[in-house]
Amino acid sequence: GRGPRSMIVGPSNSGKTSVAKLLVNYAVRLGERPVLVDLDVKHCCFLVPGAIGAAVVAETITMDGKGGAFDPLAFFYGYREIDSRPELLKHLVTSLADSVKKVATPGGVVIDTSSCGAGQVPTYEAVVFAAKAFEVDHVFVVEQDRIYNDLKRDLSADLPNATVVRLPKSGGVVAHEKAFRRQEERQSCSDYYYGPHTDLCPRPTVVPFSKIFMYQAASTPPAPTDALPIGAVAAPKEVEMVRVTPSEALDKRILGVVTRFGSVKEELSEQQQRELPSADCVGFVHVQKVDMAHQRVTLLMPNAVGLPSNVMVLGDVDLPE
User: Fold this and answer.
1) Where are the alpha helices (DSSP H) in 30-120?
2) For the chain, how many helices (H) and strands (E)?
3) For residues 7 and 133, what is the distance between their CA atoms, to the nearest angstrom?
């Protein structure tokens, strides 16, 4: 069966993520197993910064993100800003949406998004693209009248049955400083690698440069929107993936581990590189040390099983000690 698909949109410090968790918890308390989709590239509540994903929620989530029994489907964008690689993000959102739509979701789907305020064109375009990709039934807009009106106009053609609902900002929402957000980011990474209750044992592993194949999306100019009809969003263009030569610039970066091609002994073929922008990740590793003298890198992995693949993707998301 197919339950309702609801998207939450709002600016930073508006309480939109709390609304998303509230809707998920309502469904769980009714005995359902809803799917929570997190498209917030700055702070995915169950993955690392720069990632997006979806997870079936089997138990209630606390407002600080604990609980839920997540086993997410994850994709690594690799950047904190939507306009860093917008075409890459479109490919990842499309793959994620296609995966979610293929499975039965009687408990519904709740989609949290990156913060979107009035005048933030790249973020707004990403919201419209995601709403259409997931074929949402309801869009809840927190606080922003202009975005509410724009979405009613821009979704009407492709999603004529979707309802756009305006929500007031909760009186209990507290505006957080950048330092708090950074600490929140560190905590989410700590939860990923060590577990929310520090019950995991991550393992540092030394890997020679020659044994890993890292790729990054090449920078492309944004698609011109002048010729598009009002409300239309350009389809994703092909994204060129460039192999990255290990250097000291990798220090403290987060890498997504891609298993679609298994472990390889040579550079990916052109066909495989074309598939890479839409490939999901089995997990994420953190670069703890780059040893140029010995041509090797130390990676922190969330378990002691070993690397399931030597193909990795990266952006500019780092995690300083």
Assistant:
1) 86-102
2) 6, 14
3) 12
In this structure, what token pair is assigned to residue 68? 């839920």
Residue 57 DSSP SS3: coil
Query: What's the pLDDT tens digit per position in 179-210?
Result: 777 777 788 888 888 887 787 888 899 999 99
The distance from CA 264 to its chain's CA centroid, rounded to whole angstroms, is 26
Q: Are 255 and 299 in contact (CB under 8 A)?
A: yes
Beta bridge partners, 242, equal 216
Between CA 184 and CA 43 the distance in angstroms is 8
What are the φ/ψ torsions at residue 304 (nearest 5 degrees)?
A: -105, 15
Q: State both tokens at 114.
A: 């990156």
String of b and e for 130-164 (b: at least 16 CB within 10 Å)? bbbbbbbbbbbbbbbeebbebbeebbeeebeebeb
Phi, psi of 95 (to 5 degrees): -65, -45
Gap between the Cα atoms of 17 and 13, Å rounded:
9
Q: What is the pLDDT of residues 252-294, one digit of tens each?
A: 999 999 999 999 999 999 999 999 999 999 999 999 999 999 9
List of residues 6+ apart from 45 with CB closer than 8 A: 17, 21, 36, 38, 61, 65, 112, 188
Burial bucket for residue 265 (CB in 10 Å: 0-12, 13-18, 19+): exposed
